[in-house]
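Inverse folding, one chain.
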């Protein structure tokens, strides 16, 4: 697999950065809110802050399927972007890239984690910046006609939201 030169430059910058920068990414375990709609449970919806003038953002959460049939996520909407797309990470032409997909499946009795570096919801054409501490409605749509609106919290760029492990 070949590395994108920009990714290589970023990796090199992080490798030689001061220890303070390297430690700026940290886990932020919290009690995670969840919403249940039918057989689906939506856990810990969140996104990262975006810079002023930024045109894209992303949404993350865990979707648990307590049902006996697969749940197929087909898209969604948010009040602050022109459209919502589903994205996955994959290798294309030897480079790791983000790729648009039409659906994401949540297996019966299983879960789908939408996370940085993995599958996620992409907000395209932002009409406002996502600011730390704000919360917004994100509506997710499924192939069977089910939809669910969850409240997502905006976190600082350096935080990764994780579940508390007891």
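Residues assigned per position:
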């Amino acid at each position: 697999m070949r590395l994108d030169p920009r990714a290589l430059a970023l990796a090199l910058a992080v490798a030689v950065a001061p220890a303070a920068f390297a430690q700026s990414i940290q886990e932020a375990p919290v009690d995670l809110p969840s919403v249940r709609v039918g057989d689906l449970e939506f856990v810990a919806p969140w996104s990262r802050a975006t810079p002023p003038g930024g045109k894209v953002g992303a949404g993350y959460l865990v979707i648990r399927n307590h049902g006996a049939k697969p749940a197929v996520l087909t898209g969604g909407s948010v009040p602050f972007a022109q459209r919502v797309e589903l994205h996955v990470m994959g290798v294309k032409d030897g480079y790791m890239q983000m790729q648009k997909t039409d659906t994401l499946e949540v297996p019966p009795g299983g879960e789908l984690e939408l996370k940085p570096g993995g599958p996620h919801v992409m907000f395209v054409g932002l009409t406002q910046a996502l600011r730390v501490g704000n919360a917004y409605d994100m509506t997710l749509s499924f192939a069977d006609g089910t939809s669910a609106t969850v409240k997502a919290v905006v976190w600082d760029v350096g935080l990764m939201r994780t579940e508390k492990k007891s």
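The CA atoms of residues 39 and 52 lie 38 Å apart. The first helix runs from residue 5 to 16.
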